[in-house]
Amino acid sequence: MGRSKEVDAWFKSYDNPMKPVVQRVREIILAADSRMDECIKWKSPTFTYEGNLASFNPRSKAHASLMFHTGAQIPGTFPSLEGSGDTARFLKIASLEEAEGVKGEIEAIVAAWVESKSKTEGEAKPKRKVKAKAKVESKSKSKSKSKSKSKSKSKSKSKSKKKAKK
Which residue among 16, 22, 80, 156 is least packed, with the fewest CB closer than 10 Å? Predict the structure, then answer.
């Protein structure tokens, strides 16, 4: 996890006046939590942990633009995120100084994302295991019931045969 050779290669060919700002934001995001990963999706660096957190808009030249795909669902209040509606939010950063100024907020966004996804994953897995165990238990119970029914039938048949012989 963490830095990707694919994203490193992307940066080598990235020709944009915002390149230093985009690189700094990348560093902040990856350093915020060791479970964060990155890849190239939609021809742009994308940050992931149990789903897509954010992607850069590589065409933006006036500022570094980072789109949080489901930013509206990230728990917490983040004043630098722009947008309304129930899905995406955007973070626009015009300089390295501004990137340093919102560093704490970016780290908080990453922490909130990872925590919310970790809870979701942690809650979902036991539910699946419980259901699977319940199915296994019910199958083994039904097998033992059918075996005992078969034994009962066999006993009654053999009793009937014995009575018939007498």
Answer: 156
Look up residue 125 and give its amino acid.
K
Residues 47-70: pLDDT tens digits?
Answer: 999 989 999 999 999 999 999 999
Residue labelled with tokens 């919310």: 116
Determine how many CB atoms are found less than 10 A away from the CB of residue 74. Answer: 23
Alpha-carbon distance of 37 to 46, in angstroms, equals 8
With 0-12 CB in 10 A as exposed, 13-18 as middle and 19+ as buried, what is 118? middle
Identify the band that residue 166 occupies on the pLDDT scale cut at 50, 70 and 90.
low
Q: How many CB atoms lie within 10 A of CB 44?
A: 19
Note the Cα 55 to chain centre separation in Å. Answer: 15
Label residue 85 left, alpha or beta by phi (over 0 means left) and psi (-120 to 50 means alpha): left
CB 30 within 8 A of CB 36: yes
Q: How far apart are CA 122 and CA 156, in angstroms?
A: 52
Structural domains for the chain = 5-119 (3.90.1150.200)
Mean pLDDT, the chain, as a whole number? 80
Residues in the chain: 166
∠ CA(41), CA(45), CA(50), 5° rounding? 70
